[in-house]
Request: fold
Amino acid sequence: MKRGVFDVLRRALDNTLANWPLIGIRLAETVIFFLITIAAVLAIVVPILVSVGLNLANMTTPDDVVNAMFNLGTKWVLLLWVLLGVGALLFVFVAMHAFVEAGSARVYVDAERVAGPAVEGARSRFNVFSMERWLAGGRDGWWTLFWVYNIAWTIASAILLVPLLPTFAIMYSLQDAQPGMAAATGCLGLLLTLLLFFLVAIVTSIWVNRAIADWAVRRAGARDALAAGWAAVKGDFGRLFLIALAVFVVAMAGSTFFAGFSFFAAFGGAFSDSPTAMLMMLPIRFIATLCSSAFSAAVSSWFLAAYSSVAVER
Reply:
């Protein structure tokens, strides 16, 4: 039974709220990412900069940053170490996120099956969360979803090279003879790339989330999940796009709402020169940031639950 957009979103909202611990898991993931990033910067970047004689306090202009990067580039061993560290960090981030998504998708799909196809019913019928179920889904699917993310976004990045490579080639050929034309070509090429980026990012996000839902339904490999997800996107793009658009609008509205509190706190602290007033505003900024992160986690869960609902229809 193929449901309408509003029915899908309503079922997904019930599914998300009934299995609310998944929102907390996503929020914890964000906090862990933040802590790992800080630890990685302290452990990798700062010692290297100090070892080559770079002082972060002295880098106050863009020229200082460029010179610092040039000096680091001349020490290729250290540069290689930084690149390896960043690569390892990205691997950890994608693997962790794949684990969280796999476990969440498993719960949402199981909840859809338990709740049944009826439109009306108590929200509690979707409540199937258990840590054992989530961990089992994460263990079963994290490696598959790791490759789903890598393959899909690698293809998306390759598409962005279509306007970039000709732009750089034209700029290089015109930089000596017609520098003005080279600059104009660069601006136009970057504008086209930016527009293409938004389009590709939207389509890829829809594709990836639909592939994750398909994996949770069929438990296939990465290539099969991506193929099934792409076939679903082509065959049902209008509905999937409207679902993504609705979630995006809600996400933007919530982010704007919570950003208002942060702006109010920052404005209040800047308006007063008193350290006490600035200190009093810190809890407001912290609470606003925490609420914004929790809201983003809830919206991301809602998005995945919506596509899980669509996937179970088949």
